[in-house]
Each structure stands twice: as C-alpha cells, then as structure tokens.
Amino acid sequence: MVNSSKDDSATDGDTSSGGTPPSNSSVYSEGEKVLAYHGPRIYEAKVQKAERRKKEWRYFVHYLGWNKNWDEWVGVDRLMKHTEENVMKQQALDKKQGVDKNPKSGRSAQTKPKSSAVSKGKKRKSDSGAEKDNVSLEKLVRIQIPSTLRKQLVDDWEFVTQQDKLVKLPRSPTVDDILTKYLEYRSKKDGMMTDSIGEILKGIRCYFDKALSVMLLYKKERKQYHEAVVDNVSPSTIYGAEHLLRLFVKLPELLAYVNIEEETLTRLQQKLLDFLKFLQKNHSTFFLSAYDGSKVSEGKGKGKDE
User: Fold this and answer.
1) CA-CA distance, 3 to 285, in Å (whole number)?
2) Global pTM?
C-alpha cells in the first residue's frame, strides 16, 4: 500500500488532485471533513476556520467524536483530504498503533469505533479512581512525531506485516549507540553534559528494554526476538532505530502512569521532541532503507503464528 513519494505528498494537501494549489488560495474550506494527523495517528476532523497568516494557511479543526478542548490550529502539513486512498492510509496507521496484542492501543482511528473506544477507556480509568490519568494520557502527554518519521512508521509496518521482512539483527547503530550519540551531540551543542539529559536517556533505554517484548513487536518478529535476546542481554544492545521509534508511539500512554508535575512534563516533551528531530536529522544513518526477507520466508511453511 505504501508508496514513498505518495506518502510524502499526502501530508501536503490534496492527494486526490495532483497539483499544489497557489499559496493565496486555501486547500481546505470551512466545514470540510478532513483527515488530520495528531501525533503519529490520523483522525477524522472538521475544518471550523481557515485563516491565512503571513504566507501560510492555518486551519482550526475539531476532531470528530472528541471534546472541544482538543480543537486546535494546524498547518496544511497536518491535514489530508478525506479520500478513499487517505482513509486506507489512516487504517494502515491505525493497525500500526496496534503492534502485537495490546488492548490499550485499541483507541481506533477509524470512523465509528474511535469515540466509543475512547469513552469506554476513560470510564474504566475513572472507575479505578485514576481520572488524572485520563488527562495525562491524551491531553498532557503530546509527542509530535515529525512527518519523515511518521512515514518511517508506515514503511516499517509494511515491511514486516505486508512484505514478510524483518530488521536484520544485531543492528548497527544499536539503541544504546544512538542514545550515546545524542548525548554527545547535546553535550557539544550545550557546551556541557547535563544530568537531566542523561537521566532522560537512561529512562528511554529502560522503557525500551522493558516494553519491547510486551508492546513493540509484531507477531512475525517474536521468533527472531527469542533467538536474538538470550542470556539476559539488553534489547537496546541488539535492536536499532526502527524499534526505538515504535517506543515513541507508546510513550504517551506509558508516561500517563508516572506522577510528573505538568511543568516538568512540558520540559520532558520538549526534550523528547528534540531527540526525535535528532533521529530525523540522521534518518539515513540510523534507519534501514530495506529489511531482510530471508528470516520470515524460512519459517513460512511451519505456520503463520510467527
């Protein structure tokens, strides 16, 4: 389903019409039903207002089925036309968010189930007396994944689930290597090594090692995991950027259960976004352009569970 050139253009406006409209005309009209990126997911939304600021158009959108508190101004790069092709892309991303079996990721980005799934999830949390977690889960923890990395997530999903290909292990650079490179990058840029950055990177490593087998793997990757991670070896010394990026899709719901003050959380979000920009800047170095098809192919005749 994924085509590299089409995916890049899909976030730039109307994928159903070929050309890019002139900057003085709006791509979307008020009242138009659209698809909108929010973090790594795509949701149905409605354009409430369209406004040209300087030379760029901005749109005030309401996410259908969501509270008005979520209404926000977004740029044209966050929106797509509500076409059959883009709905298929939405569904593909929705499946990507459900890597392996994880009921908490069941907040569907597809039309009808979305709002009901969210409300049911919130009711469960309220029943357990964790109402604050509801706010943290969706409102406070916002990790905006850059467009290049969003496309990487789609490609990743297609390689594994549609083309039966896996990331060849061990990876180079590993997750540990990438975290070390980022620490060196920040130290040079800031002129010093800050404890806060070091602690955040330790946290990312810890979350990755613990979350990988629980919520970051597809079924087809499990056999490879059990073959590669042996003798208490840390996954962060074997896996690379492809699986690390998946962690950032899950981080909002993981952080929702951590008691963090809002001000501290805001600073954390800024640092996480800076790290994602670092991944984006080094995309060609950190990420594979193609996966290995041999491992899954070898096991195809033995059953579909893997």
Assistant:
1) 21
2) 0.55
**CA–CA separation, 129 and 135 (whole Å):** 13
Q: How far does the chain reach from its first CA to its final CA, in angstroms?
A: 22
What pLDDT does residue 225 have? 95
CA angle 229, 272, 117 (to 5 degrees): 80
Stretch among 22-26, 112-116, 257-261, 267-271 having the lowest mean pLDDT = 112-116
**Mean pLDDT to the nearest integer, 54-83:** 86
The mean pLDDT value for 13-39 works out to 67
Q: Which residues contact 186 (CB under 8 A, 6 or more apart)?
A: 193, 194, 197
Three-class secondary structure assignment of the chain? CCCHHHHHHHCCCCCCCCCCCCCCCCCCCCCCEEEEEECCEEEEEEEEEEEEECCEEEEEEEECCCCHHHCEEEEHHHEEECCHHHHHHHHHHHHHHCCCCCHHHCCCCCHHHHHHHHHHHHHHHHHCCCHHHHHHHHHHCCCCCCHHHHHHHHHHHHHHHHCCCECCCCCCCCHHHHHHHHHHHHHHHHCCCCHHHHHHHHHHHHHHHHHHHHHCCCHHHHHHHHHHCCCCCCHHHCCCHHHHHHHHHHHHHHHCCCCCCHHHHHHHHHHHHHHHHHHHHCHHHHCCCCCECHHHHHHHHHCCCC
What pLDDT is recorded for position 295? 56
pLDDT for 129 equals 41
pLDDT of residue 130: 38
- Percentage above 70 pLDDT, the chain: 71
